[in-house]
Fold this sequence. Notes:
The protein is mainly α. It has helices at 9-21, 46-65, 72-92, 99-126, and strands spanning 30-35, 41-45. It is 62% helix and 8% strand.
Amino acid sequence: MLTPVPLLIVPLAIYNIITFLMPGIAWSTVLTTVSMLSGAEWTISMAETFIALSLLFLFFEILKATRITHRSIIDHMLSMLVFVIAMVEFLLVRQAGNSVFAILLCIMLLDVVAGFSVSVRVAQRDFAIEPRE
């Protein structure tokens, strides 16, 4: 039942929760520092963690696009709707006008394009059309 729900709505919701309900938290906040074998110190910020989490959701969205069901077109349309809503938020809401949200928007665009592309490609394998002579 939850199959046609776009998974990238979760990072969008997380972004909005952090931005609007926790205004004191900055995206540049360092979450942890990892000592590397080379002696370098790798600092991981909240923004980098959020982007990595969003990419994980994108991975599962692309896996969902490889299945051909009657619900897959609904999933693609909902993914497009989530992208349009995020684009409007990016353009009109001051708190969304930053690099973190812009990268999230790029991830959503990639989801929309990859979803349609993968579905078309998989459908071509299932249904071969020979050209007319």
